[in-house]
Amino acid sequence: MGKSTAFYRNATKAQIAKKRAKDKEINSRPEQRKKRAELNKANRKRKTYGNGDKIDLHHKKGGGLISEHQSKNRGRSEKSRLKGSKRMKAFMKKK
Question: For the whole model, what pTM was predicted?
């Protein structure tokens, strides 16, 4: 079972609402929209966009993109999302 599946099975309605609000804020940022547009363009070029193959493109640290299964790409714990990171502290201050 993936991390997202486990979260949604065990979360309360309030937790889900909080997550959706956070996701909406993050996804509306200009830099995030630009990144998403870049990935969608690359996915279309590789003919993996919207065909249900469950393959995403992943940004590598040094630049460039690699194909990766969506559950691995979306379930990764990035340092910026972990408790105690500068990004999370800044996000929690806004609340």
Answer: 0.56
